[in-house]
Design goal:
mainly alpha
Length: 94
């Protein structure tokens, strides 16, 4: 069983984070952004053999769906940037 949103959220995070140079890019903050976003979205689970997986994957590529997911990822980036769960001296940026 797999939540298909996880890959889409990770991909969007990598695309969008360049717009937030103040956001830390350490592994902990990246994981927190993905977790925050996934916790604020309805999961889309599938089983590998499930033919519905293709339909969900296609939906995740639609512009409207991606835009909606992007809003959640941007919110997650902003929340984690303001409230990192590590010492501010450990900040990592690209």
């Amino acid at each position: 069983m797999k939540n298909l949103l996880e890959g889409a959220i990770r991909e969007l995070y990598l695309e969008l984070r360049v717009n937030f140079p103040e956001a830390c890019r350490c592994e902990r903050c990246q994981a927190d952004v993905v977790t925050f976003a996934l916790n604020h979205l309805t999961p889309r689970y599938t089983v590998e053999e499930n033919p519905g997986r293709t339909l969900v994957a296609v939906d995740l590529q639609r512009e409207a769906t991606r835009a909606s997911l992007a809003v959640t990822v941007i919110e997650a980036i902003r929340v984690v940037a303001v409230n990192p769960r590590h010492d501010r001296n450990q900040r990592t940026v690209d």
